[in-house]
Amino acid sequence: MDQNESRISKMDALLFALSFEVVLLQMRILEGSSKLRIREWRPTTKIERLQYAKLREDRDLVEDVIRETLIQVIESGRWDAIKKTIEVLKEKDSDLVALKHSNEKLKMTGDGIQLELELKRNQWNKDLRDADCRVAVLRDKMSEREECLEYWRQRYDTDTVAMTITVQKKCEELKLATVKRMELQKLYDLHEGEMRGWLNFKRERAARLAREEHQRLSAIRIQAWWRGVLVRKALGQFKYLRQTKKQPGKGKKK
């Protein structure tokens, strides 16, 4: 009895097949129109591409299920194939629900990651601002150092030119002083010979004068001694002293 009730007539199977064929034809029409629209509109973002891929997978799944159900109904002539198909769709639906929950969890995880990324982004922006401030300070210091370097470079060039001019002047003065010194050295050598001759002359003259003075003093001493001898002996021009000695002296008064 149950087997007779579960079996379907050929007319019902034909109507069922026609309805499924109509559904498949409508799905093909929808797919064709969607393809025409896809030519004008192309998914740009990742979400749109995923949605489009999900739509195609669902459409292919429905077509496969309808086609398999139609084949099983025609081959077996029973409605059990439809029940099995419904159970398969429920399983797919439960899988979709589980996938949805998983997607929600992933979304929550993604939100947490997004929040953490936002915090990190804020921290990175703060670090970048601090780094920009430090870079600005370093650039100011670098500009100051460059200005100071440029000043000292110009100062070095100016001082180098001035020192070069001074060194050239000193070299010229040194050359002139060297020439003058050589001239003075020649004059000194000339006068040194003259001075040497003059000193020799002075020494010889001093020795001669000393010798003459010694001779004069010796002669004076000899003359004095001889004069004393002549006076004492009453010789020579002092003979008259003899007569003076022979004259008697006056008697003493009593």
TrEMBL record:
GO terms for cellular component: cytoplasm; motile cilium. GO terms for biological process: cilium organization. It is found in: Cytoplasm, Cytoskeleton, Flagellum axoneme. Its main location: cytoplasm. Keywords: Cell projection, Cilium, Cytoplasm, Cytoskeleton, Flagellum, Membrane, Transmembrane, Transmembrane helix. It holds the Pfam family IQ. The keyword Transmembrane helix applies. It comes from the Eukaryota. The chain crosses the membrane at residues 13-30. Belongs to the DRC9 family. This is Dynein regulatory complex protein 9. It comes from Arctia plantaginis (Wood tiger moth).
